[in-house]
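Re: beginner question about structure tokens

> Can someone show what the tokenized structure looks like for a real chain? I only ever see the sequence side.

Sure, here's an example I had lying around. Input first:
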Amino acid sequence: MVDDDVTSPEGRSENECRRQEKRIMKWRKMIGVGSGDWKHYVRRRPHVCKRRIRKGVPDCLRGIVWQLISGSRDLLLLNPGVYEQLLLYETSASELDIIRDISRTFPSHVFFQQRHGLGQRSLYNVLKAYSVFDRDVGYVQGMGFVAGLLLLYMSEEDAFWLLVALLKGAVHPPMEGLYLEGLPLVKLYLFQFDFLVKEQLPRLASHFTEEMINPSMYASQWFITVFSCTFPFHLSLRIWDVFLFEGAQIVFQVGLAVLKYCHDNLLGLPFEKLIHALRHFPEDAMNPDILLPLAYSIEVSKCLEESKLEYEKQNSKLPNTKVPPPPT
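And the corresponding structure tokens:
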């Protein structure tokens, strides 16, 4: 007699396929025909949207969902022909820098491996167009990983407008300060993250101080690329699902979560091994089903507000200091 609770590998696979199909159907219903139902659904059932996004957007729908939750779809529809004009009829002072960095962006991913292939050409086009669109920002190397990640799920034009939505603040506070001269938003975020580590992980913060470790040594790329070049791809995608819907707060939560998960191991390491460990986390720490629930449980809103005020206070004596708003 076969135990009813025992399922064959084939059965498990079939059950998983059925669950996935049901999940995709729910998402298609949320989006609606031609994406027409999305805004209504978010307004009517925001908590359902938040819960489903935190569970992960189905990969086959990730491109359109990212455009909808970021506000970039509206920007695209409001600006027909603008991307083509930027690409074909304008020149950029950053073109040589972009060309130099193309091969350094996701070098192990098949889409970007071929020299002058579709992936590299598309990445160049998006970055060149943005450097023309926003000449104050122009081009900074970290932008390539953000644009590259977007291109894996959407067209050049769609990726361009999502980049615009992020940096100009279509839904959440603008993030162009990550790439402006002097990296003002990076400086604020690192100050806030240091504040959070001291507040929530005091023993680890003390150890970091003893070993002369500060967040700029390990966390800068977390914020500049939203983990896209530092964490495994499957985890980065899940973080981006939440980041686009909820804002930059998730970057702080994930950063704290991985430090908390590896807390005891990090406490026993000297400087060189500590630096290595902070850039190469163990495989189990990179499991989204372990790390993300831990991240969601960490409250950071109050500390982010307090640390922003402290940062402004410390920098108030500097001339022309502009501090971007905190992440929502």
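Each token stands for a local structural state, so reading them left to right follows the chain. The longest helix spans residues 9-31.
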